[in-house]
Amino acid sequence: MEIIYFGILLCSIAFFIAAIYISITLKRLANVTSSLGETMRDVEKQLEYITPQLTKTIQEVHTTIDEISEDMKATDSVFETIGNVGNSINSINDTYRVYKDGITDEKIKKQLRPTVEAIKWGEAAMQVLKKWKRVN
Asked: What predicted TM-score, i.e. pTM, was given to this entire model?
């Protein structure tokens, strides 16, 4: 029977050591939880201070984004106009290139001949008119 009592004594000692270990662990856990609670209270206080400022900043950013959006819409027509000018210049360049490629020196002389003749006849008419004004 003494062996049974001795076994019970060993089990009791093991249970006692396990209970002490668990109580120490739970005490540490309680301390950590308490420290965490204090930290969360501090964070909550800081958030109470920061939250209105963040709300105000977000509202200002929203207003600024709206203003920028309106400004961007106002400049859309300017950029469209610039694009249209670029397209017009490209079209003129293409037309000139086609015209330039299709014309030779002989064609230019032929096209300019009536203009040169008109200038000559205009000059002759001006000289006649000047002489006629001197005479009269």
From this structure: 0.40
